[in-house]
Design brief:
- This protein is α/β, with parallel strands linked by helices and 1219 residues long.
- Helix 21 links the parallel strand 25 and strand 26.
- It is globular, with a radius of gyration of 38 Å.
- The protein starts with a helix and ends in a 12-residue tail after the last helix.
Length: 1219
Amino acid sequence: MIGLVALLDPLVTVTLKIGGWLADPIKNQYGYLFNYTTNIKKLRDGVEDLENSRASVQQSVDAALRNLQVIKPDVLAWMNGVDELKKEADEVLQASSVRVHKWLWCFGGRFHDIKSRYSRSRKAVKTMEYVLELQEKYKFNKVSDPPMPVEITDYIYFSNSEGFESRVSVRTDIMESLQDDAICVIGVCGMGGVGKTTMAKEVGVRAKGEHLFDVVVMVDVTQTPNKKTIQSSIAEHLGLKLQEESLSVRAARISARLKALTRVLVILDDIWTRLDLEELGVPLGSDGQHHGCKILLTSRSISACNQMKADKIFKIREMPENEAWLLFERTAERSFHRDPSLHQVARDIVEKCGGLPLAIVTIARALESEKDKSMWDDALQRLRSYNLEGEYASVYSSLEVTYNFLESDEMKHVFLLCCLFPESHDISIEDLLRLGLGLSLFKKTDGVSEARIRTHAFVQKLKNLNLLLDGGDELSVKLHDLVRDSGLNIASTNKHVFVVKHGDGLQFWPSELTDECCTSISLRCDEMSELPDNLNCPKLELLHLVGGNQSLEFPTGFYDVMAELKVILLRGMLIRSTSLSLEVSIKLRNLSLEYCTFDKTSDLSMIGNLVKLEILSFVHSDVKELPIEIGNLSQLKVLDLTGCGDLFNIAPGLLQRLIHLEELYMTGTLVSWPDEQTTTCIRELNSLSLLTALEIELSVYDLLPHDFIFRRLKRFKVCIGFSTESKMAQNTLTLRLPASWEADGFEILFNRTEILHLHGWRLLANSILSNPESSNFLMLRNLKLESCDMCHLTEICHGQYHETAVGEITIDEPETSWKPLFRNLHDLEIVRCVNLRSIFSLNAPTDFLKLENLKITGCEMMEEIFLKKKRDQDERSVVEIELPNLKCLILEDLPRLTGFSKDVSSLVLPQLLEFRLRNLPKFQALNIVDENRSSANHSLFDQKILATTQLKVLSISKMKMKEIQKHLLPVSCFVSLRVMSFCKCDDLSSVVLSDLLRKPKGLKLLHLEDCHLVEIVFEIQKLLTEGLPVLNNLSDLELESLPKMTHIWKHGPETFVGFQNLTKLSVASCHQLTYVLLPSIATILAHLQELSVTECQRMTVILKEGSQHEAIQATNRSDQLVFPRLKSLELIDLPSLRCFCSELHDFIWPSLETVWIDCCKEMMIFTAGTSSTPKLREIWINGTNHTIERDLNTELQWLQQQLNDGDSSDSTFRSSVIE
């Protein structure tokens, strides 16, 4: 027996070994059978997740395609791969859904079923591997590349000239010259309207798009350049604020800013004569000041280009005939081959336009809708009949054709009034209205309101014909300089004779103003010392004077030969008694003294003699009182006291005598006179039956009489207890009223109110919502409720919703027909409404579809945003809510808010750009469908709850981050994220932060403040993704009050790509941090411009040597460290700081301009090695400015010695040198 055992023992051993070798493969094969259900489920879930990722990418692709961007090939390949995989997975999943209903009793039958399960399970596993592979590749940095730079044009119709060879060749030559180091100044020359400005703008856009320059600045110089205006425009493009008045000081600051840029292109548009660039602060490259600065200028005159010492001049010529014809066809949007009757006349018109794009397009626009051939023949005849001389003849004649196409003399005159203003000036449409009223332009209009409608209609038609351009806002327009010149030329050949002079250098009254035919004068008088005393302008109707020093006086009898004068507009002048000697001007209808100062001799009572006056304006002037004589102006329609902060008295009885007054403006004139006087003055407004426009501010509600009623107001801005912006187009009510105040006087205004700001609630609750038939808010766009007592709301809509102290802003669904109250609401802000529990009713889901901005803060009782009225407690219905236009959502200081709604299953916010949460201690998620569901089972941004790929700003403050830690935000919410801020989030850890930072590839600003668990900001190893750059778009990093932070960057490879666009790094009050940078990090921060480190108690050095391996690498490389763009360095209140760097590196700071060191008592030297600072001229130490005369280390040691010699107890730097 023993022998048998001995004989079998080797066999058993071999068998066991073979079994061990086969165990794992057999186990895997059996795993396909035993894990069949699990494998199928994993595949189904994986495919579903992949489909969601595919949908997210598709949204980004669709958005990119809408912006004409080019989709990256790897993105398209990934999407195709997902589609192919989906087909394969569907086959596996479909086969797995077919059940075997009958077992075969034979062994073969059972074996056949097992084989099918094995096969499907194995395919599921293999397919799932591919799913995981595609899911891993899903994290794209971006899905598209930007399109070619879009052409920038003065007029939209210039885009029709794109691709013409005559323009392409010049543009190519200019672009090549910009890349030639020997060329500093380039001129673009050509006659007016040929397209010089368009060419310059297109070159600027392309140069910037091709990264030839870091910054491109374009400034409109104009025929009469104003140096301060030009400097301000340059500074605005550079993000530089100029508050100084001295031209030389402003120039020095601009020069320093431009020199700080490595490559900059300054485009000076419309040069007429030599412009001293040094006086403006523009450094030329040819003199060695700044070789990276190039100048591109445009001018109608080649001599002006030569005066500017242009190295190369390119002339833009008229379009050749074939290009001019094609441009005309494109603009007129018709093919003349299909309309032979107009073909020849159209050809003749194009020929007469002389190849000038402006003339071609102007005529084409004017004739675009004309079908009658006689209109075309007439246009051609007009072009041929004018005999204007000079190179601008064809331009002026073609523009006059457009002018003659205007439908009425009124519109023509409004256009000519625009020409009275300076070049490139924002022209107020209200100014055009008042000038027109003063000149009696508007026929068959009943009152100021109708004239305003007519003016806006004229302006829109003039813009449609490209005679006017959009201004800086909706209340203003602009005029192209060539169109303005043409208009003045047209005026001079008609019954209107305009003399217009604006800009620097006008020291004397123009000689041409002695012309007896002159009808309008518009002058800037800043440098004039006197006005003529024998001015003979008997036909003058409009006088517009701007500026003037304190010595400029109106001579006695200045107005004596101006009997036809109807409009006087004086701005920024000193008004004396002679300025108002208007006895002869009996036809005066508009007197506007704006931004003026009145001396003691000025007597406003003289104005009372101007009995035909219809408009009187003292906008932003220091008028002290309105005398009773103003009440004699019985024809006055407009009284404008906007911004008259010094006004302390309006004579009692004055206003009620202005029986034809239609508009009264007092915004910025805070009425806070003695109560009885103010109440009397305001009560007089009740007697003005024609008053249709009122802007008024009252300091307190007691000044408003209880029986005051706003009757016929169509335009209004009523502010009680608040001040408001002076430039607002919308009808505005801003009311701070007690709860007991009755709203009867305001009810009539609510139907037309566009901006409503309420402080106090019973007013709205009892008088408005309870009677929606008499008061609705169909015009309301902006609603703000502040400190409102919600407990007074008892009736809200039709059907008399009775419930005591419901504390809700809501609109109950009526049993009868119901009309939404807030269908046009764009902005809603609710502040400190302590009893408010909810905002919106789910019974009126369409009431807020246009809402764009929602801010709720300080509402202590609010529990949810949406509430379903008459909720069934046993069975709750769930609904989907979409706010399709919501762009900004801010929820702050809401201690009871748990979510958006208990009844909302899906909240869709497709346009959300900004999302801010602060101090919401009970906030679980955006929805709270199931009150019993654990908060761990849903995330803050469940994709079913918040559907957005547009989010740009995410700010979370004073919030518990556990939800985010357990269920991180989906990538779809981070596709467009640019700003991320976390403040006072005590449970935000470094792990959670790293996961969050992996998602937003386009992040530009990161702000962390008062987050006590953050120890490391950037764990590089976790942020590395397939070799892609790490946060390469991040430009601003702000770290403040992070008590446990020990590292900003850590746990990464010695070399990696990332943070290459970081320009500003700020670290404050991080007391465990001992250093900021490592050499490996410093070398990649090539764009860093500002570094600020303040109040870090344990900070010993700013730059610390890294690992031993990194130190060896540094030794093998150069010992130099370069901060190529760092301009500003602040080291403040760092008690342990010894130096910037203690290692023997040589530092190069080519751009460093400012060093500020304050309260760094342990700092001995700047660096252990040398420091090259070619641009550093001064250093600030403890608030004192010191000129740099030596290298930085030596300078610090010398300053330390000086401080020691002066008062050793106050020394900041100890006199010791590192050997």
